[in-house]
Amino acid sequence: SPDGDAAPRRAKSTGAKGLEGGIHKQITGLRRTTTRTYSGLQEDEVNAVAALYRKNNGDLRKLAQLMQIDHGVLMRDPPKDATDFAHKLLTGQYSVDMTEARKKDLR
């Protein structure tokens, strides 16, 4: 019937307008940002980690404790010098997938 169809159409129309108003309110509240791209390691970060390496005389056991890294991970690919250590640490070469490490420990 013509009268029976009007109520659902009005409800849809009202719902859509409400949604549109809510979206508009959210959009006006957004702030413009600038997308930054990764530009590699920062020199000051590399220098700081290299200094830590030198301060500990390249002692991989001490460094492993300080950095909370498994000593075995460091020994698999030991650094050639302070800068090499910094690069490997900061690029994640000394990171361990903790899930896999835990599975290995359980075996």
How does this model look, in words?
- With 107 residues, the chain is mainly α.
- It has helices spanning 2-28, 43-55, 60-67, 71-76, 82-90, 98-106.
- The chain is 67% helix and 0% strand.
- α2 crosses α5 (82-90).
- The mean pLDDT is 80.
Measured as a percent range, the helix fraction is 55-70%
Mean pLDDT: 80
What is the count of helical runs? 6
Helix and strand run: HHHHHH
Q: Structural class of the secondary structure composition?
A: mainly alpha
Shape: elongated
Tags for this model:
single chain, 107 residues, mainly alpha, 67% helix, elongated
Give a quick rundown of the structure.
This protein is mainly α. The protein contains six helices and no strands.
SSE layout:
Blueprint: H1 2-28, H2 43-55, H3 60-67, H4 71-76, H5 82-90, H6 98-106
Helix pairs in contact: 2-5
